Amino acid sequence: MSSSVKIKTLTIDERQVGAREDQTILDVARENGIKIPTLCSLKGLSAYGGCRMCIVEIAGTPKLLPSCMTTVEEGMVVTTNSDRIKKYRRSLLELYFSERNHVCSVCATNGYCELQSMAQEVEMTHVHFPYMYPQLDIDATHERFILDHNRCISCTRCVRVCDEIEGAHTLDIKDRGIDIRVITDLDHPWGESETCTQCGKCVHVCPTGALIERGKSVGEMSKRKQLLPYLTKMREAHE
Amino acid sequence: MNKKLTLATLWLDGCSGCHMSLVDVDERLIDVAGIYDIVFSPLVDVKEFPENVDVTLLEGAISTDEDVEMVKRVRKSTKTLIAFGDCAVTANVPSMRNQFKVEDVFKRGYLETTPGNDIIPSVNIPKLLEKAYPVHNFVHVDVFLHGCPPSADNIFYTLVEIAEGRTPELSKRARFG
Amino acid sequence: MTPEEFKKIGETHQKKREAFKYNINVCTAAACVSLQSEKVKDELASQVKEQGKKESCRISGTGCLGLCASGPLVTINNGQALYGGVKPGDAADIVKSIDKKPVKRLEIPADMPFFARQTKIALEHCGNTDPEVLGDYLALEGYEALYNCLTTMQPVEVIDTMVKSGLRGRGGGGYPVGLKWSTVHKAVGTKKFVICNADEGDPGAFMDRSMLESDPHSIVEGMAIAGYAVGATHGYVYIRGEYPLAIKRLKAAIKQAERQGFLGKNICGTPFSFDVEIRLGAGAFVCGEETALIASIEGKRGTPRPRPPYPAQYGLWGFPTLINNVETFANISPIVRKGADYYASIGTERSKGTKVFALAGSINNTGLIEVPMGITLREIVFEIGGGIIGGKKFKAVQTGGPSGGCIPDEYLDMKVDYESLAQVGSIMGSGGMIVMDETSCMVDVAKYFMDFCRSESCGKCAPCRVGTAQMYNLLNLISEGKATMHDMELLEELCDVVRNTSLCGLGQTAANPVLSTIRFFRDEYLAHIKDKKCPAGVCVIEHKEEAVL
């Protein structure tokens, strides 16, 4: 940290906290043990701002802002867990569950899934929006990994880790709206990919069972959550 | 001692795993029996769903016209209706057919996977709905007890809380899957 | 080039025009072109030749004359006679009667309210210049504003002029232009950019297209002035690929301006350099959102990112960037030329100046209009617009496209300005105005706009991606008479969730057409749900008893 970085003071959930001026609200909250739920954010990857779970209220701003991409300001008054926000987070999560075919009981990541544990975190007991039941494919052409679109929440962690950390950019997104899909290369089967290095980082940053290792059965696919923090740390040490 | 509450348990489109989990309450079943009289259940031999049931544990998704009729009748006669397990709460495994057309599901189930069989049964069986649905799509549900199956602890906790006149807080205790 | 030189070019052109007794202008903007106005123009030219009137008649193409409903339009000496619905076969009669009485069957009264009630500032040159000829623009004081800014004004003075004019962004948000320019001016950056947002995507809106087709130089000039004011050296016009004619004319205008030194290095001999490049959009509505637009110019997938930081601080490739839309830039040079006070004298307290609207739908005078802010909806619809087609009953006017709302007849006397429109749950938007009569079903209208939002959602954030699809499904159920009151509650709940949790403007405003139709036409929703009837007779409701559901 250079000496020119300024320190800002702000209030998060009625607590006075100090922060570097370049920090996001999410970073500062975590440093201070204030938990804000996230799905697309992952330390070591660029911020995305798409999952909307980390929205917070900022006094004087009518809009809810994503704490992962909002930098701190002097005197900011942030509320992370008002009833209003809690209600929206629950609705958002219900929308996620209604979007695709998330059947926890027969999922390889059952017990290790961030979407599943998020339901507990935001106190979602059921989905009151209609389920959409889209007909989706599973790409099982790769010899080591499986991409199951039924369980994808389009957080793009896999796309970002493949591009930013591995440097392969095998994964990307196609189409838009409800039709968006994670693709490999130019929408060719993963097994035919010439760019995939088989590193498996995408599998381990995937919050759900959308990316799993081949051969893993129900509840067997735990993810190595420390992989990315470790890689980031080693990179920083190297630099 | 107060008069015992009446308890019904129902098994629609599910695997009966939730009922197994109910039995897994083990020795606490004696406590449950102290609070509740089971008046209707796959575990007891009663043909008609009775009137004025205090609590109903409803396992399974709603998948046929008969299920719809049943769940409506149950709702009418039940004070506290519990969606019991993931199938009742989310339609869970039965809903995995929802991506496909009913005809295709039949074809797959009766013809393609059964060599030599060329009949799709259609007589004297309930009509399959276009999709399998969660219970709350049809009737109001009072308590969502999710899990596949819900743990015996959560089942016991829920039954006791209701008997004590409290609303069970399951959102943090229970987990889908 | 010195001002004398370019004035001279202008004067030469003016003289060339005046040498002819009759200047016959044929509208060559897209609407008239689609009705064969190019053929009309050719036929007029050959008739002039045939009838030996080459000495007195000059045929030229011109920009949008506004009254698209009566196209193709032909005007003689800028309004001496105005003809509508002209077919190539009419050319002979028009030329024959040029020095006699006008052709009755084609004549449109030039003093009709459609023309008389307008105040043209952004559209000042539309319809009276040839958009493909720089000399025409110069003859009408073109590029004088730029020259004056560069030679007599400091950048802050230009910004001050914008502040005083009260001009607000015409793309929809209505952010004060002077304030935005000042922010970019003050922002620290080794480079700065100016972007013109011409990714017009609202259904029924064609203001930007018409302006670019009719008067491209005014947009180029406005951008250059903005570049000077904020300290940018490079500009981009992000324009939809679906606007080939606008692209062609803008390209030509940029080339002409470069050749004459109004763009490029050391403009008009001053130290200021500024160039403009065109970037084509590929048909994604969301790319009209400024951060998605920037991503698209950068060559990335056109998806928005959360603001702050705003582009004024952190824009194209991370540099401070000014983004305004076509109409905003079209207003710049008139404001500089005529003065901020003149502009500020038009309009209302908080909404100054004029606004361009594209009138569409069930209205007699479909077309492009420019009116002072504060005019009432009634004046627009019934005086300028000439009322409803076939004398049907007015039902609602939709402003702001998929982000706006439907305004019912009880608000017809409401003033059109940013605040009033917001109060009734709509927005000014970029200027689309769709008039609906009694035969429109408001549930169907809401469904149409939700279908639009659902297919234009980029899919980045869950509330917009899933929420718009869910809302569309519910509206579909309602329109088919299959919904219950519970579905209606879900719809209203989703409106609230999507509006408050979406990432960008698309999602945040996607519910507006639903909310405003529920607010003013709740009865129609209830008729679909409870009585299984569509009062307007638009929605097809099958009356069959479902066995189970």
- Shape descriptor of chain C reads globular
Query: Taking all residues together, what is the mean pLDDT of chain B?
Result: 95
Annotated CATH architecture of the largest domain in chain C: 3-Layer(aba) Sandwich
Main pleated sheet of chain B: 5 strands, parallel
Radius of gyration of chain B: 17 Å
Defining key terms:
heterotrimer, A: 239 residues, alpha+beta, Ubiquitin-like (UB roll), Alpha-Beta Plaits, 2 domains, five-stranded mixed β-sheet, three-stranded antiparallel β-sheet, 25% helix, 16% strand, C: 549 residues, alpha/beta, Glutaredoxin, Rossmann fold, 4 domains, four-stranded mixed β-sheet, 22 helices, 43% helix
What does the model show?
The complex is a heterotrimer of chains A (239), B (177) and C (549). Chain A has 239 residues and is of the alpha+beta class. Helices cover 25% and strands 16% of the residues of chain A. Chain A folds into 2 domains: 7-81, Ubiquitin-like (UB roll) (Roll), CATH 3.10.20; 108-227, 2-Layer Sandwich (Alpha-Beta Plaits). Chain A has helices at residues 25-31, 83-99, 114-121, 157-166, 201-205, 227-238; strands at residues 7-12, 15-20, 55-58, 65-66, 77-79, 138-139, 145-148, 171-174, 181-184, 211-213. Chain A has a 5-stranded mixed beta sheet, covered by helices on one side. A 3-stranded antiparallel beta sheet of chain A has the order 6-7-10. Chain A starts with 6 loop residues before the first strand and ends with a helix. With 177 residues, chain B is of the alpha/beta class. Chain B has one domain (5-163): 3-Layer(aba) Sandwich (Rossmann fold). Chain B has 6 helices and 7 strands, in the order E-H-H-E-E-E-H-E-H-H-E-E-H. The longest helix of chain B is centred in the middle third of the chain and has 13 residues, at 65-77. In chain C, 43% of the residues lie in helices and 13% in strands. Chain C is globular. Chain C folds into 4 domains: 20-110, 3-Layer(aba) Sandwich (Glutaredoxin); 141-344, Rossmann fold (3-Layer(aba) Sandwich); 354-437, Ubiquitin-like (UB roll) (Roll); 442-530, NADH-ubiquinone oxidoreductase 51kDa subunit, iron-sulphur binding domain (de novo design (two linked rop proteins), Up-down Bundle), CATH 1.20.1440.230. Chains in contact: A-B, A-C, B-C. The A-C interface holds A 48-52, 55, 63-66, 69-71, 88, 91-92, 95-96, 98-99, 128-130, 132, 153-154, 173, 175-180 and C 284, 286, 301, 305-306, 308-309, 454-463, 465-470, 473-474, 490, 493-494, 497, 500-503, 508.
